[in-house]
Amino acid sequence: MPRISMWNKNKTNDYRFHDRTIREQFHVGGTGALVHKYIGPEDQPVNGNPSTPDYQNDGLINETTIQDLLFLENRDRKYDQDIYEMRGVYNISDNDFDLTQFGLFLTNDTLYMTFHLNEMIETLGRKLMNGDVLELPHLIDEYGLDADTPPIPKFYTVSDGNRGGEGFSATWWPHIWRVKLEPITDSQEFDGILGQGADDGSMANIFSTFSAEMDITNAIVDSATQDDPIGGGTALTTHLHNYVDAEGFSWDAGETIDTGGNFPSQPNQGNFFIRTDFQPNRLFVYRDSRWVRLYDNIDDRTWSDRTFNASTFVNNTTEDVASGIFYPSRQDISEVIPPRADYDDTRLIGEGVIGVQEDLENITNILPPTIAIWNANFSA
Prior knowledge:
By secondary structure, the protein is α+β, with helices and mostly antiparallel strands. The protein has helices at residues 13-29, 55-58, 117-124, 191-194, 203-207, 210-227, 303-307, 311-314, 333-336, 356-366, 369-379, and strands at 31-41, 77-89, 97-98, 105-106, 111-116, 133-135, 155-163, 176-183, 243-244, 250-251, 258-260, 272-275, 282-287, 290-296, 319-322, 325-328, 348-349, 352-353. α10 (356-366) packs antiparallel against α11.
């Protein structure tokens, strides 16, 4: 009597029986999935760049072709004009916002869908791979807020694929292909499916935020044109007090602000006053029972002076004199404290090394004069 074994290196009738049963299960309980098959990158012109080879003349454009060898990406993807229908199964879950970490993340929008392996090979000619796009008809949104907007389909792109662990039968042969699906975005990679946002009637124009973003941009441009009709960055001066332009025209936007070296004795709420004894002159406003500082008149100072509190120290370009030699006041720390050479045999004296005082004098000799003077005073 032969030994009983479920495993056989050949796909026997047992394997085919299980495969037909599993295929029937997908047809009975699975949902329809429309597959947009990725067939490789778009033809690109020859530019002599080694990172973007000329595959067109070589006739090597297929799913395994890499458009950009430098960044290892296929930005311009080409999809088959035919759409393939298959049956798949996945677990439906609610889309919730994840509030357990910083930011706001939408969880459960990633699907793990399984397909019958042999039926997939018969339909597509290969397995589902990265770049393929699936449209799930049962997730179409038919009830949009805009009555004129057509139903919005739901697209997912395949980001990973492998044999599903639940798809191995008792004969140890696989029957199921499991893919990871993520929602597609209105990006360059999927222009072959969604179209260009600027094209009227394309899915990218209808379903994405392209139209709303363009309306916002156009509104900003129109507002800027209204504020600056001449163009070229014309300065707006109507809000400046007593401004005199290059042609001598004076703008009077209000009454003159009082100035002086002392505050008024009986101010009213909201009164402005410029203290001329401050350098630069300082503008105050009277609020409640105190004068609140508003601005300083520092138009003659540079941007860095207005930004950095220690600008006079950081940008110190003056020079100091030491021993009749001029040295810049601002010095790199690598120049102020130079590295010290290791001791050698010539620095050893008798029973020990050079004394502390002599060692200090040698250090003083290698320092810049400004530091040397300080060091001598410290030692004294």
